[in-house]
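Before the break, one more example. Copy the sequence into your notebook; we will annotate it together after we see the structure.
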Amino acid sequence: MKLLAIETSCDDTAIAILDCSRGRVRVLAEMTASQIPIHRRYGGVVPEVAARAHAQTIVPLITEVFESIGLKFSSTGKKPPIDAIAVTCGPGLVTSLWVGVTTAKTLAWQWGVPLYGVNHMVGHIFSSLVERSLPKFPALALIVSGGHTELVWMKNERSWKKIGSTRDDAAGEAFDKFAKLLGLPYPGGPEISRFALKGNAQAIEFPRPMIREESFDFSFAGLKTSGRMWIERQQKITPNMRADACASYQQAIVDVLISKTKRAAEKLHPKTIILGGGVAANDALRDALKKQFGSAPGIELIIPEKRFTTDNAAMIGAAAFFTGTKFKTSWRSLVANPAFEIQ
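Here is what the structure looks like once it is written out:
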């Protein structure tokens, strides 16, 4: 089965054509048009600007992806060899979501193929399973992104339940806001990680919110406040101080994420732990998970390739394929749902 996948939940326009067969998802072609240069001048994503960029980019990008594997794309001409379409329908920026959803609905109607409206966060879980088979279940998924920080319990590929989430700010947002206060360019998370390589993670004692609480929930608002107050107390921030601040702040976030995941694993005994989300590209988090669970008896740790950690279309297609009819819908009924949460 050849599947066209579309992702426009925030500021990346992503398209992929996937070969879904024999229990695996193989990427035939994949491209992403980033809007970082556009939004960098504003210090963050502007929803209306993002939607306009998606609208200008999506059809040319689909055309380019088709041509890269020798196919011709036409929304009104002969149907291409596509068997289904998957699209992110939420959560995300509603203006951005509607661009992808409208495009997918139009093509599904024109070509007469099945349509899948995929939850973006479930897509992040399945980003680790692109070009590999399903893991052993039950599984515990840690999703860490700019807008979400969640622990999800999966009985199987079609059954999941959110067992923990942030009560205020997401880890990715905490990274971005601290970077902005330090004068680092958008997106801030990768900049924090880059400067942290030169810093001392024990130099500044930032708080670890809720790290000792028994619940699986997170909180990063207090850490953001602590970071801002530290910056305000400094008369001048030298390059060494900035590196130490980045390393210490990053370590505080990683410690909380690892602690909560460990607590959930000890209580629930998963056979697999899965990492997903944009912050999954963070090397400190990846290394800490490997140290904690890499050699744990009876547990397989699955970490996605870095190219599948950012918002991408391959993960959306993988979620549609592996979950079967879970997200199957029709061009008549599919809508963009910015509040589409994992229950």
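The first strand starts at residue 2 and ends at 7. The chain has ten helices and eleven strands. Try to locate both features in your own notes.
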